[in-house]
Amino acid sequence: MKKPPTTRHLPQAAFDILSGTILVFGFTALILLIADAPVLAAFKNIWMGAFVSTAKVSQVLSVWVPLILCSCGLLYTFRVNLWNIGIEGQITMGAIAAMAALRIPGIENPTLLLIFSFFASILGGATWGLLTGLLKTRGGVHEIFGGLGLNFVAQGFILWLIFGPWKRPGIASMSGTELLDHDLWLSTPTGWRVATMGLLVAGSVVILTWLFLEKSRFGLKLKAIGQNPKATLLYGLLPERYYLKAIMITGACAGIAGFLQVTAVYHRLIPSISSGYGYLALLVVMLAGYRILLLPILALFFASLNVGSIQLPIVLQLDSSLSGVIQGCCVLSALLILGIRQKRERS
Amino acid sequence: MICDLSLPVLIASVLAASAPLIIIALGETLSEKSGVINLSLDGVVLFSAMAAFVVAKETDSLLLGFFAGGCAGMLTGIIIGYFSIYLHLSQVAVGFALSLLCRDLAYFLGNPYSRIQGPALLATKVPFYDALPSSLQIILTQPLTVWFAIFLIFALYYFFTFTRTGLCLRSVGENPAASFARGLNPGKIQLTAVLAGAFLVGIGGAAYSLSFKPGWGHPQGAEGIGWIGLALVIFGGWNPWRVAIGAMLFAFLQVSSIGLQDLFPGIPAQVFQTAPFPLMIFTLIILHYSTRKNAKQGNSKNKFQQFIGRVFMSRAPKALGRSYRQE
After folding, report:
1. Which residues of A touch B234 (CB under 8 A)?
2. Which of A59, A188, A270, B310 has CB atoms 3.0–4.6 Å from A176's, for a disulfide?
3. Count of pairs with CB atoms under 8 A, one residue in A, one in B
4. Cα–Cα distance, A312 to A307 (Å, whole number)
């Protein structure tokens, strides 16, 4: 699954990136031609949609924050070779827990509520991750299916909350719960759409993840278990315990993403609070070849595609899922190039 | 539990709802029996559903529509096959990325065809319709996809159990190196199985957009079905019969959730629609425990336990998910 730690030469890497870019552009252009759409105008529209103004750039950053949080989290589970598809549900449960904490009656201080909410979201996400882990270690359910099942459970739960106990007075609708008080919104710089706190949290999670995974004994143990669980068992490490730890950390990161979605982006609970960022983060991590140094820049690239394509339906009458086509194509092209290179090295 | 559904109507709707799912899950079974996991099912179902609807709409031919759905599925099978069998990349990684790509591709290309009327495969009367009792009339009036699904169960069972080619395919899924030593070409056999399986998945997708939930849209209504198909293959222990029974069970849960909705009006419809998915996955846990217990007890004297053991015994193809490298 992982890229071998070969020392890549610079020209080789440049060639890979170039051929990958050509592949992605070529494929996307082909798809646009099939859809009978103007190719250059579509690319230009995505670019403009993401970078034309500071407001747009800050919107890209507001997508980048949850994306990088989830990607960092997923590094832990990928280290031990777990496929944490349940991350979508972990974001959702983090958001639900955050919202629940914000609704605690009797506390007047908004800062205190927000701090409560932050830790509640970590707890919510980690618990949901732990459930997936327990399903795997105790229940014998592969983490992909356990995670998916729990995603659907979380989805059902959030719908029930929005239409049931937490519905807006009078009308319950898919548009979500009532807006939070302004005191409970995380503050954003004027003219920007991304909360300062969000950026700070995301930045520190990236640094902490790098320290944990690359510089600590814990990271080394995770790596060892991922590469050979049987050997580490002889070494006195219990792989199952580390599976649970890794998936709980992922859940916690996803939970924080959920907290930020509630307090900094939507200011309420909506049914699709996770916005598919969990699945997108899986793609980001794969594209980065499971290396943390590439994550921030690739997450930024994916976030700009997401934001840039929002205008496509209005300007060019194209579906905004074009961003997803480009993102998926990036990952498959990277895999293709990697596969061909490995095959050549072997023979 | 189900208020205003009579038994024949219930059976008929379960059959109709399970047919596309049976075709999809059996396609995956075929691929997994040869040792290749095709995780892209969820996207492929949508992609082929879109392709089938667009072609059927443009050509006004249902047959071409189904064929296009199958071909769209096969196209993704080529990618899965090339990446995982010849380049030896992780089947899970390729499948997951392809799944998301196909889903978005379907939404993007299908956008101009959203929410428009198109051809749909209707239920047809069976021969001697008038001579049948009314309950059978209701049950047996089904679209052709239902009969195809039932035929497929028999066909695959026969193929795996009684034919030489089926044996070769299973042996590759169990031990590709030994099969190679016996003169088989594991890569070729796996690729054929993946392509045939993906073609069936495509037909299953077409059965959604052309028959069970006619039309195309965002969302189409087949979202999440591919993941259930994957779970069904494990639930069914890679046995066509049990996979099909699992599919019917799932369809029953879906159909009865409509009845439950009337009983609990306060709970939104979407909650019930998600309910069968986790239920399906939690049966996997029970399965795990019953399999493990029976393995421990060995040949138990208790007849009932023996029976349960036989029903729930399941074992994955040994080489499933591992790519085989010829030495």
Report:
1. 142, 145
2. A270
3. 148
4. 10
User: Residue B124's beta-bridge partner residues?
Assistant: B142
Q: What's the complex ipTM?
A: 0.91
Tokens of A161: 């909350």
Residue B298 CB coordination number (10 Å): 7
Contact of A340 with A59, CB cutoff 8 Å = no
Chunked mean pLDDT (size 10), chain A, 347 residues: 53 88 94 91 91 90 95 95 93 96 87 94 96 89 86 89 84 81 85 87 96 93 90 87 95 96 92 92 93 94 94 88 94 94 86
Residue ranges of alpha helices (H) inside B82-216 are 91-110, 134-140, 144-162, 164-174, 176-181, 186-207
Nearest CB among B218, B267, B282 relative to A164 is that of B267
CB contact under 8 A, A339 and B100: no
Q: Is residue B131 part of a domain?
A: no
- If one looks up domain A10-346 in CATH, what number appears? 1.10.3470
Q: Which of B120, B317, B267, B88 is nearest to A156 (CA)?
A: B267
Residue of A142, A166, A335 to mutate for B, most B C-beta atoms under 10 A: A335
Q: Is pLDDT at B112 greater than 80 in this prediction?
A: yes
Interchain contact, A149 vs B282, CB within 8 Å: yes
Domain containing B142 equals: 7-121+138-312
Look at residue B194 and tell me if it is in a domain. Answer: yes
Judge whether A325 is closer than 8 Å to chain B, CB to CB. yes
Could you give the CA distance from residue B194 to residue B28 in angstroms, rounded to a whole number? 8
In a domain, B258, yes or no: yes
Residue B37 lies in a domain: yes
Total of domains in chain B = 1
CA B232, B233, B234, B236 torsion-angle sign: positive
Say yes or no for a CB contact (<8 Å) between B93 and A148. no
Among B166-180, B215-229, B307-321, top mean pLDDT goes to B166-180
Whole-prediction pTM = 0.91
Option in A163, A164, A331 nearest B97 (CB): A331
Q: Do B100 and A324 touch (CB under 8 A)?
A: yes
Among the partner-chain residues A144, A323, A332, the one whose CB lies closest to the CB of B97 is A332
Task: Identify the band that residue B1 occupies on the pLDDT scale cut at 50, 70 and 90.
Answer: very low
